[in-house]
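User: Hello, can you help with two protein structures?

Assistant: Certainly.
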Amino acid sequence: MALTSTAIAAIDAAIAEHTDADVERFIDLHRHPELGFMEERTAAVVADRLRELGYSVTTGIGVTGVVGVLRNGDGPTVLYRADMDANAVAEASGRPYASTVRVVRPDGTESPVAHQCGHDAHVTWMLSMAQLLAERTDLWAGTAVLVGQPAEEPITGAKAMVEGGLYDIVPVPDQMIGMHTAPMPVGTLVCAGGTLMAGTDQLDVLIRGAGGHGSSPHRSKDPIAMAAEAIVQYQSIVARMIDPSATAVLTVGAIHAGADNNVIPDEALLKLNLRWFEPAVRERMLRGIHDVTDGIVRTYQVTDDRMPVYTMKGGSTPLVNTPALSTRLADAFAGALGELSVVRQFPAQLGSEDAHLLKGPHDDIDFTYLMVGVVDPDVFAEARVQGKDYPYTQHSPEFYVDLAAIPMGARIASYAMLELLGV
């Protein structure tokens, strides 16, 4: 084990020394959330801080991605990834620094923006760990590659960075690490080998009809009626076309159609999200969506030139942790935090991620993704008393990161890096 008692003590002391600055940075990021591929301010914060610490920095990888590289002699190469984007959610956490930001999205719609998934904490943890590595080069050897990734929420950022030339800039790592907030008590973390998260796809379905007056629906081909039927029938794909022992989720996250009470529009847009573990299940859902939608549209006698348009957007395969690396890190965390703080066995979750897609063509990179508790232990305990699994979840308006999780997450990130790079 490379994470010695000396290294643990050094990490704890260093993080404690700059916790106030870390919390201040976290609050600043929280107040200035940005959606995927719009993270210009956040990327600048990451790039500027890494430059200050002596990292070689490259910006604009995959639109707004940032990479910092710090070389410290011979040794392994470890890539650490933090995602930077926020959610189109109106925050209702009650925090004094809650986001009030609203933006106009590329499609012209206006939405609230807030860090209701904790990516502001992810960035803060990485920058705190970056400072530890820069100031204590006596504790490690090798190459640290720190990645500020855009657009995790639409599941497009990792792929964009790889396609944008990530591996023309950085060496192929021996190991890769990512961390994410979890609605668990501060001081606990999940470090489990095997499949941790589901695969996902984002699919837009544009139903095209013929608009008309609300008083004369028979003279139109109502896309809202078609969309409503499709939403209901999509659930039969999961309920009646897929083995009940398999895992499949099909969610319609948004429907955009029309503007006035008395006007039938000519289009309706459905935004779908799929979750799956087996590729065959994914293919069956996609085929079913086409069959159901096309069948409904033909029932309304829509002409061939107005058939639905299907647009595949972001997507990711299931996230699978390398068992040996997960075990190694779990042992290190147990030594630093105590065995009771480390969850080594965890059921696969239907949440999804694209961190592992940063491997690009290098499938043999060892990879582990950690889930880090960010809830006040008393708040968590009270939720359990009330019969809740969690007091709140990511993407909900009530989600927030307890400030005690800022130094704890920074310590965990530093423990992980020094376990793999430590001397």
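That covers the first. Now for the second protein you mentioned:
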Amino acid sequence: MHQPPIPHLASADPELGRLVEAEAERQHQKIRLIPSENYVSAAVLEATGTVLTNKYSEGYPGRRYYEGQQVIDPVERLAVRRAKELFGVDHANVQPYSGSPANLAVYLAFCQPGDTVMGMALPMGGHLTHGWSVSATGRWFRSVQYGVRQDTGRVDMDEVRDLALAERPKVIFCGGTAIPRTIDFPAYAEIAREVGAVLVADIAHIAGLIAGGAHPSPVGHAQVISTTTHKTLRGPRGAMLMSDAEHASALDKAVFPGLQGGPHNHTTAAIAVALREAATEEFRAYAHAVVANARALAEALVERGYDLVSGGTDNHLILVDLTNRGIGGKPAARALDRAGIELNYNTVPFDTRKPFDPSGIRLGTPAITTRGLGVEQMPRLAGWIDEAIRAADRGEDAVLDRIAGEVRELLAGYPMPGWA
């Protein structure tokens, strides 16, 4: 059953209560490999469901537009202090509702409509809000996009510099959603200084790895840092903006009143809990284990003939190009889901297929590492992935169902926060 228990929900709305229980059971029974997903602790779950959700708190601590902030102000100050201490930054804003609004606040703080901005192209591993054409950020600003080399799958920093010098962007984003390699923050910082741009490090995917010392930090290189608070950080679905002192005021004004009204206080509290957890030695070991698992899984997939973008991984994320397997990413992902292995289909660099039916799959190790799986399980997991993809190509549903049963048997020995 769901933990913490939900008796009041189950009684007041049995239909929704059953759905929540079903989702908790589904998460328990599946190997969850979507790299942007994780399991939060019971403490984070409890904080998210508190009476703090009842309170409106427009403004910032000590400067609110509603009375009755005697408790809320200390909650937000606690989250801010923990963020500053954990990441070693001058300033932190814990109010953004999610990663995309956080990035929109960056544009509002430092750009005018029509200004030139620069980010990684979405098909190459970037994010929609880094200036991609279908996003508001690509429609309201003049966006220039960089990518990766076709021969290496890695960013060529000389090409990034040439593009920045030619286009002179106001803001440069580094980071993204499908980057399996270490981000060279010092190199981006040097380019941004040369062209007079604000460097924004979007660390949404790797924030937990940075907090745990398993990935270099952008602090001291990027003036602004944007991140979600879930993914590898193992917090609630929220976001933070961090910066040096010089850029703090502009960011705060962009978040409120620029984009948002009252912050979600229950989420702020859960962020504070997650940041406290991320400051522990246990979390540091977790972050390094995430990377070790990803590398072990990547190596096992390569041994089975799979083509990985950039040849492997330095972090939590693996991007697989299935072109040489004769199957698209979408049918492969659906077959793997039936086999009890949850990941997502994904565009790969220089993909010749359409975005909704791309050539790749994207997978990562944050959630399975939280469950306690280690490098010794990664070859078996790679074997299941390979077997399921082969079965999908042959239409052998019985094989997929058998693998799902084996997955459930394995996971029965690994507790899940949120299910008992």
